[in-house]
Model the fold of this input.
Amino acid sequence: MTRRSKLWRVAAPLYVFINLGGAIYAAAMGEPMHAAGHVVLLLLGAAVYWMWLAPRAQQQELLPGAREAVASLDHLQQSVDAIALEVERIGEAQRFEAKLLAERIRKSSLKKDQ
Done:
């Protein structure tokens, strides 16, 4: 956890507490506009905190699925690499057999000419 995120974990509840206390104190002192200002700030702060917190919660929910997808993709990549290697080996074997067959044909045609 970064230092900045630790700061926000402390600052956000403190912000809410100060504005809630300020709204209650202003209402008790008979200052409705002052109390309304604190309520607006409280709601605005809660909305910003909610928008900041909600994407992080969604990211944490998606991470287990993402980890499984990455593992599956790694397995798929290993399988494709193994298949490519086998195809290359098959190609080498076919080239070798074609070379041997060409040599046999050339040798047999030389024997017929003699």
The first helix runs from residue 3 to 28. The helical segments are 3-28, 32-113.
